[in-house]
Design a protein that fits this description.
With 156 residues, the protein is mainly alpha-helical. The protein is built from eight helices and no strands.
């Protein structure tokens, strides 16, 4: 999945409007315009589509953590200049304040089964011998599960 696809899926899952997206970026110190957000959210095949950089997506994810959990004391974490799915997954886990069992339940909502051992491998240091790279399908199904969980609560 590209950064733009991740951003689009998160916007849909959380049902964010343009103002919410701009506010989330601002939480992490990045002022963006409605036009920038719109260009990032366009379909990949749209000629007006603009690629969002790893740094910009990392700032969005840091802003999402602040949006969901509040700003922490002291200096704020620096956004990563290079992202991978493991980092995105970890930031979403932090933003939503999820434990392993919560994540597994969310993945089950999307009909995706994963063991606790497989899940913990995604959150290990890259130099750890049990580390495993998070693949597209895991991240895609996690975001889909988050969407199903959030939409389920909004319908009640």
């Amino acid at each position: 999945m590209t950064n733009n696809q991740i951003l689009r899926r998160l916007r849909y899952a959380f049902d964010f409007n343009d103002n919410s997206m701009m506010r989330i970026f601002a939480h992490a110190g990045l002022e963006v315009t409605r036009a920038q957000v719109s260009d990032w959210l366009k379909k990949d095949e749209d000629p007006a589509s603009v690629l969002i950089s790893d740094l910009e997506l990392a700032q969005f994810l840091n802003g999402l953590i602040i949006e969901k959990r509040g700003r922490k004391e002291g200096p704020q974490p620096e956004p990563e200049s290079k992202l991978n799915h493991n980092i995105v997954f970890r930031k979403l886990k932090i933003a939503l304040d999820l434990k392993d069992d919560d994540i597994l339940a969310i993945l089950l909502l999307a009909d995706f089964r994963l063991s606790k051992h497989e899940l913990s491998a995604f959150f290990r240091r890259p130099d750890h011998h049990h580390y495993r790279a998070c693949q597209d399908q895991v991240l895609r199904n996690f975001i889909k599960g988050v969407q199903l969980k959030l939409r389920q609560h909004s319908e009640e």
